[in-house]
Amino acid sequence: MARINLRPWREELRADKQRQFIVMLAGALIVAAGLAFLWQTHVQGQIDHQESRNDYIRNAMSDLEQQIAEIEELKERREELLSRMQVIQDLQGQRPVIVRAFDEMVQTLPDGLYYTQLEKSEDSVAIVGMAESNSRISTLMRNFENSDWFSEPNLTNVSAADGQRSGYSRFNLSVQQVVPDADDADAEQEQ
């Protein structure tokens, strides 16, 4: 007797292959989803890493900007302090000059004459005073011309004194203050 297979083996084979295809398709989809997830995780990790580097650079830049601002402020303070120190040094250097100038004014002052007002502006000294006679004023002007500390005496006004001091003349005189060289001033002080 002949063996005849009446089972629908072709449909079963087709159904078997279809199940295998669906399993393989599902496996491929799972693997693809896993790869996509890994790829996205990797890319997101790189983005996060780059953002953290950018944040670090921004923080470092803000710190540097603060340090630059502090340095600029310190430079300004340094310039202010240097200018103050220069002013103080100039004043310290002029202290002996002022004392010496007053001493010279006393030495040039002849008897019978006195100052009522002294006013200094830059290198010029304006003098208002009283004198017993005009010859005393002339002596004062000669003394200023011979002085190492003053020059160019200029008499602007001589008038009779008012009130109590009859016989006295009131005068206005201006002289230029000259600061001699340090060597000349030292030699003169030693004498």
From TrEMBL:
Alphabetized UniProt keyword annotations: Coiled coil, Membrane, Transmembrane, Transmembrane helix
Pfam family, one: PilN
Coiled coil stretches, renumbered: 47-91
Record-annotated membrane-spanning stretches: 21-39
Any one GO biological process: type IV pilus-dependent motility
InterPro entries per record: Extracell_DNA_Util/SecSys_Comp, PilN
Protein known as: Type IV pilus assembly protein PilN
Organism: Halospina denitrificans
Taxonomic lineage of the native organism: Bacteria, Pseudomonadati, Pseudomonadota, Gammaproteobacteria, Halospina
